[in-house]
């Protein structure tokens, strides 16, 4: 699963970047584009960093960052979806919303499992 998630979060980062390159260059869109690029790239980067965690607690902390950044990416994708008037990229936005939600759900479930495992060891 780790290799799959590492690849999946990287692909999410790249797909968000490619979407952003197709959005209008206006003051409003630029603000959302910049935020989406930052948060989505953090999803991939922090998941990658989690693979080098020094302990279970460190791994959980890094996954919590991935959780926050994935949720933030979803927020900006939702905003972009609501203000988008370009029908050609509508499916792309919907795909990224679905993928972001799946990544978020996997990360949240992983954190929950890790915490349960920690508590069971006590």
Biggest sheet overview: none
Low-confidence stretches: none
The radius of gyration over CA amounts to 16 Å
Helix/strand order: HHHH
Count of helical segments? 4
> Into which percent range does the helicity of residues fall?
over 70%
Number of strands: 0
Which shape, going by the Cα principal axes?
Answer: elongated
Q: Mean pLDDT across all residues, rounded?
A: 95
Strand content: under 5%
Measure the end-to-end span. 26 Å
- Secondary-structure class: mainly alpha
Give a structural overview:
The protein has helices at residues 2-21, 27-50, 56-83, 90-121. The mean pLDDT is 95. It starts with a helix and ends with a helix. The chain is mainly α.
Summarize the structure.
The model has no long low-confidence stretch (mean pLDDT 95). This protein is mostly helical and 122 residues long. The longest helix is centred in the last third of the chain and has 32 residues, at 90-121.
């Amino acid at each position: 699963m780790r290799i799959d998630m590492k690849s999946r979060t990287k692909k999410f980062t790249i797909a968000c970047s490619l979407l952003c390159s197709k959005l209008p260059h206006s003051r409003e869109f630029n603000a959302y584009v910049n935020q989406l690029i930052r948060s989505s790239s953090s999803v991939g980067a922090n998941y990658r960093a989690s693979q080098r965690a020094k302990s279970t607690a460190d791994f959980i902390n890094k996954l919590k960052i991935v959780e926050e950044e994935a949720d933030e990416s979803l927020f900006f994708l939702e905003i972009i979806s609501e203000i988008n008037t370009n029908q050609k990229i509508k499916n792309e936005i919907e795909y990224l919303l679905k993928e972001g939600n799946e990544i978020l759900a996997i990360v949240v479930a992983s954190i929950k499992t890790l915490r349960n495992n920690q508590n069971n060891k006590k």
